[in-house]
Please model this.
Amino acid sequence: MADLDDLRDRFARALESARPGTEGPDPAPYADNLLTRWQEPQRRYHTVHHLTAVLDHIDVLEEYADDPHLVRLAAWFHDAVYLPDRSENEDRSARLAERALPEAGLSRQGTAEVARLVRLTTTHAPAADDDRNGQVLCDADLAILAAPPSAYAAYTAAVREEYGFVPTDAFREGRSAILRQLLDLPRLFRTPYGERQWEATARYNLASELEMLSL
Model:
């Protein structure tokens, strides 16, 4: 079980560290709203466990970010709107951040950066080599690809459950296309840590899954 109280504390620390000054609205209602979203019944992989994992990976990678507090807020919002049968989840999640964060006391510039980062998770491809915040968020979100075999198997099973409404042949075709796109990337991970620690294992997992889907 995810520790919801710990997650509330982590959201409060990120928001209070990112917004100017020390005064502002109580972070708790915003954290509770987001946690409610992350626990919606249609989710199997994109749950509070995924949120926790992404936050944990940001903690590992924070030295590479220009503003890790904004990256953490982006992690909270990056799948806050999630319907498996919709294609605009990232944009709707970004628009949620654009509505909620100014009310929560974040600056206009900070809000814009969080929304940009959320939209970046559509492609997981930072456009510039100096997009350090984007590199950290994307690497943290993709770190599951380098999980040990049992955890990777659980991840793929959960993804299949989320797309249970898709017929088997169509799912195999769509998932295989995604795996090929990932394997064709020159680099899955952009931070030095991610490239060093996760790249080889992730590519092995992706290739193995693709082979299984072709059987």
Residues 128 and 200 are 23 Å apart (CA to CA).
